[in-house]
Design a protein that fits this description.
14-stranded parallel beta sheet
Length: 902
Amino acid sequence: MISRAILFILFAISLPIPAHALDLYVAPDGNDAWSGRLARPNKACNDGPLASLNGSRDALRKLRAAGQLKEAVRVIVASGRYTFTEPLLLGPEDSGSAQAPVSFEAAKGARPVFSGGRVIGGFERGENGLWKTRVADVAAGKWYFEQLFVNGRRATRARTPNKFWFHMLDVQEEKLDGSAGGPKSRAKSARQTVRMRAEEFAAIAKLSPQELKDVNLVVYHNWDNTRRFLDSVDPQEKTLVTTGGGMKPWNPWRRNNPFVFENFLAALDAPGEWYLARDGTLYYKPRPGENMKRTEVVAPVAEKFIVIAGDAAAGKFVEHVSFRGLTFHHGQWLTPEGGFEPMQAAAGIEAVVQVDGARHVTLEDCDIGHVGTYVVWFRKGCRECVIRHCHVHDFGAGGVRVGETGIAKNEAERTSHVTVDNNIIRHGGYIFPCAVGVWVGQSGDNQVTHNEIADLFYTGISTGWTWGYGECLAKRNKIEFNHVHHLGWGLLSDMGGIYTLGPSQGTRVANNVFHDIYAYSYGGWGLYTDEGSTGILFENNLVYDTKTGSFHQHYGRENIVRNNILANSCQHQLQATRLEEHLSFTFENNIVFWTNNSPLFASNWGKVQQVSRSNCYWSAGSKIDFAGKPLADWQKAGKDTASVVADPLFVAPRKNDFRLRPASPALKMGFKPFDPSKAGVYGDRAWVAKAKRVTYPALELPPEPPPIQISDGFERTAVGKPPGGATLRTENKGDSILVTNETAAAGKHSLKITDAPGLSAAHNPHFYYQPSFTNGVVSNSFDLRIEKASMIDFEWRDWSAGDYHTAIHLRIRDGRLQVGESTMELPADQWIHFEMTAGLGKASTGKWSLTVRVAGQQPREFKDQPFAKPQFKKLTWVGFTSNATCKTVFYLDDFNLNIKQK
């Protein structure tokens, strides 16, 4: 047999050997008119290094055109600062080959910095602790910027409030494109009117029309954010008006959505904030210790750093080009006139390093940061490309993107086989918090390995981009040994350490560590398989300190969750939502451990089609039940075979040391230990230390939204329009929830709820308010007018812990009201008045009372009714559901919901 040594030698001989390299030099004191063959200027100062990367590219093009370039090329860049306004643009003609690659690299021991920004000086002390300077090109209308970097640190564009956010009282939308649309349609153009609390409206009440033009409204809604300019404000109504695209029906702005205002001088009141006036005056409030006479202030000019522009459709690629040891800083992004419309993962935002039609393009040991967009995007038609050992930091959107949101018809334009390895990717989402650390869309056979991904407001790693079970290219992706942490920060929702979408057979998510993931409301998960996720293996992952669960499957098929440690989620540990007929997932050989008193399961975990076996469960904070049953009964029902409730005997779980002691029962059950310390970056000590050097502040939870007192007689809403302040669910199949003037209990308007046969969900149409009441006595009253066929459910719910718990539940069937065990006959086609009260928090007795008034009858009282679920603590949802399956109508008027604090 041939020995391994001989095989290795033969393999090495077969590799292409690069030809002798041509070295071109770039230096700060260079000149793009020189040859670039000398590292330093000659004595005559008529030859020497080039001055820029674009100069080196042009020099190489001339050599190629003259037939003088056949060897490998190194463009060697000396230390120093290089400024630029236009990106390095490389086309197919700039390619190297396997035998003669092209490399743009730092000189030995050098760390050259390319800045797409401009240094701003001349600051003078002003009033109220502000410093200011005049930027002539801004005054002349030649330049504007929306980011500022002071001593290498992002400054905060003046905003209010400085900490956390305001909350919408109400929002109404008027479509401007003339389309009626259905419940899932979105107007191309619409006007939104936002009603605010008086004390919050005061922040912009005194701004002049000219100042208002530059104010940004930034709205955070679930997994999205929207940026808009203001059209006008109404001091009397305490409203603002903004115009843009119609709200997404599946994720609109809603009552109590967080929002902030940016970019006006009156908001500049905190250290580290800045404001740029259109007259060219730049204001800044220094942080403690900053001396404005010695401080470096940089504003961005360039929008792109590197653009690789191959033409994959034509088979013309940029090939065998690398960048090593280079630093690129200060990238621009400007809010377009129409603002930024919501887009999951900020998928419409480009990158400062943008790569199309590339083969064997490599970024290695580079530092790229202080930008307003994504950082690197291997977009259309890329293969065998690499980003490795790069520091990607301080970005307005996300870190690294691979692939596209859609599937290219031409297979040559599809991206695959990209490696994202051993990078530090952190501190992002400053302009687009909905962006992702590493995003892989419609792309397969990629490797995302050994990365440090941290300090983002949304998801760490996202793969897939097909909602449901349609065609998806995100297969066989390898997501391994990543350290992903400190996500969410309580700003956005519906997020995860890793988030997957669509059929992804062969994808492996293994040996990662996910922790410190906290959403605004729902959805701070560790492992999150969203719509249609299929064929994914989750193995040997450590997940801990999440908000809403270590693992959640919305819906999917035949995923495997195996040999993971899932620890210490706040609200519950495991969640599965949609019920489907096929096998949704297999859950085996996992350790589920928590120290708080939260439940084990949420949603439909006990009902979904799954296989669970050989798991170890342990709670140090409460008794464990399995959907309300002890484990023995749960297993008798055919659930979770061979699993145990037992302390897994971690070494020091309170210190997040989840190594197992030798006597661990999990080991006896077949759990295979893995080493979480191997997750994250690797290599030299300085690089590993750099990843660990940052410390993150303790999570500070935002205050609860102020209680919203609701009083709506629907008089302000035009006839034929939906009500403001409520979330509606209709199917546009004959069903509707619209204001009418057909009848009213008082005034001229009421709300008409029309049900219809053939709806996909029996509980549609339905609508609800989100009051967020926690402490005090709640009073709720309204008037109803029903038909004999009306089937109505009215509830108070608490959604604060994931699954909801009900306090009040009224049922109306066949003209009868049901309250607990009691009933009451209700007249048809006549207004009926309902009044109810209950205490919350310290005022709670766990009971509620109801009074029903029918004209001509004595009031009927239902006193001291117990809450339907004793777990009810907080009123977050008040709503009506029409459960009829035929054509029927009921009306609502004078809806009032108030709380008196105690």
